[in-house]
Amino acid sequence: MAIDFLYPQYEVVRNPARCIACRACERQCSNEVHAYDDELKMMISDESRCVNCHRCVSICPTRALKIVKTDHIFKENANWSGETIMEVYRQASSGGVLLSSMGNPKPLPVYWDKILINASQVTNPSIDPLREPMETKTFLGQKPSKIERDENGKIKTNITPQLELSVPIMFSAMSYGSISYNAHESLARAAEALGIYYNTGEGGLHQDFYKYGANTIVQVASGRFGVHKDYLSAGAAIEIKMGQGAKPGIGGHLPGAKIVGDVSRTRMIPEGSDAISPAPHHDIYSIEDLRQLVFSLKEASNYKKPVIVKIAAVHNIAAIASGIARSGADIIAIDGFRGGTGAAPTRIRDNVGIPIELALAAVDQRLRDEGIRNKVSLVVGGSIRSSADVVKAIALGADACYIGTAALLALGCHLCRSCQTGKCNWGIATQRPDLVKRLNPDIGYKRLVNLVTAWEHEIKEMMGGMGINSIEALRGNRLMLRGVGLNEKELQILGIKHAGE
Ligand code: SF4
Ligand code: SF4
């Protein structure tokens, strides 16, 4: 029907002087955009299917292809953008909820970009990280408020289980099912090589990956998929997922089409059945209920593993975190509103939650004010894009950062934001065997190691520039930060001064 016609968002531009009709693009595009026309003796494109993933562009041996944004427009209207109009058409046609993936792409403020880092000049000299030792080792878990020694000087304070990280970065939760076996293998091997952790997400742990348990965080979400005693014992820490930045307040839904083979066995649900995680945990309606689950999991793992509680950054985050810190949890993970996802309702992803920078500053301050900051470590995620974001997060009060999208980019993701289709051309967000094969874990894990190693060098350089030689001395050191272009209220919540002050 003409009323449903939507002009394609992207155009496939093929340079006929370069195209040799090798049909590589046709074989590589899971969206079936390219085809060879026998009559015309040339390649043709159905651009309405293109998601702008750059796979064909990267593979084309003669660089004959490029993808451009269409210049076809609706009549200008500052209120009704072309995108909004098309979304209304789509919903009027389908009657369904709009689905999206990856993080919120809206032009809301990115506070990391409005915060600048200090450097020493003349006094308090900078430190050269190539010549001086720099400590980035991080321990996550409850810290005692004081150390007691016995009559022989030996420490007698009981230290609860800790996670030890070589650098304050971990790979955030991405379930097997939402991402491929090869993507999980790459993350697991990289975490082991780097001395950090990756996170199973809510899909359980594939049998093949139990050997990486010392570098694995196992997640317990509301659906309890793949959760059993061996699973809880397999990881180095257990994470209770209460919320996720991309979709605060709602559950998850992995379509039955993706519940195949090992994914169904790992999740312990029948093949083809939808994996629906309820919005709340049906046994948690208060901090006391949460406390019961925290201690049930500690009991089940012989009090040998720290328990993390992951929440989405929402309006009253500081009060919620204060409650969690009193629940017996060892670590609180906070996921900001730009956090990625394999699939989320578009309206939720783009309109619910708050920026991680403000959430982190508010939580750190509240826990300090209440004298309970030592009771928990804080891990933040939700669009940590570079080593500079990590340094700013640590100075704002985080103990470590979760990275998800950046890790997937290292594996080849081109942020086409089509993960929900299951046809990821880069072999990441898919279970199709022909597509999964495109991601080689031998290469994938090395690229992740390279990424985190590069960030570690940069973190040390920034620390050295500030005259700081230990990540511990940077933690919560907001004097090292200044704001630019922020109003009084934003500066007050962030707890930093404006540049020039
Ligand atoms: S979907 Fe990806 S592979 Fe297919 S035409 Fe578009 S950019 Fe190329
Ligand atoms: S994981 Fe794949 S489908 Fe998802 S945004 Fe990246 S390239 Fe696109």
TrEMBL record:
Q: Share an example GO biological-process annotation for this protein.
A: glutamate biosynthetic process
The residues the record assigns to binding [4Fe-4S] cluster 2 are C29, C50, C53, C56
Binding residues annotated for [4Fe-4S] cluster 1, in chain numbering:
C19, C22, C25, C60
Query: What keywords are annotated for this sequence in UniProt?
Result: 4Fe-4S, Amino-acid biosynthesis, Glutamate biosynthesis, Iron, Iron-sulfur, Metal-binding, Oxidoreductase
- Origin superkingdom: Bacteria
Q: Which reaction does it catalyse?
A: 2 L-glutamate + NADP(+) = L-glutamine + 2-oxoglutarate + NADPH + H(+)
Q: Name one GO molecular function term.
A: glutamate synthase (NADPH) activity
EC number(s) per entry: 1.4.1.13
TM region positions: none
Q: What InterPro entries does this protein's entry cite?
A: 4Fe4S_Fe-S-bd, 4Fe4S_Fe_S_CS, Aldolase_TIM, GltB, GltB_archl_type, Glu_synthdom
Which Gene3D superfamilies does this entry report, sorted A to Z? 3.30.70.20, Aldolase class I
Q: Which Pfam families match?
A: Fer4_9, Glu_synthase
Q: Residues in domain 4Fe-4S ferredoxin-type?
A: 10-39, 40-70
What the entry lists under PANTHER family is as follows: ARCHAEAL-TYPE GLUTAMATE SYNTHASE [NADPH]
Similarity remark: Belongs to the glutamate synthase family.
Protein's name according to its UniProt entry = glutamate synthase (NADPH)
> Which organism encodes this protein?
Hominenteromicrobium mulieris
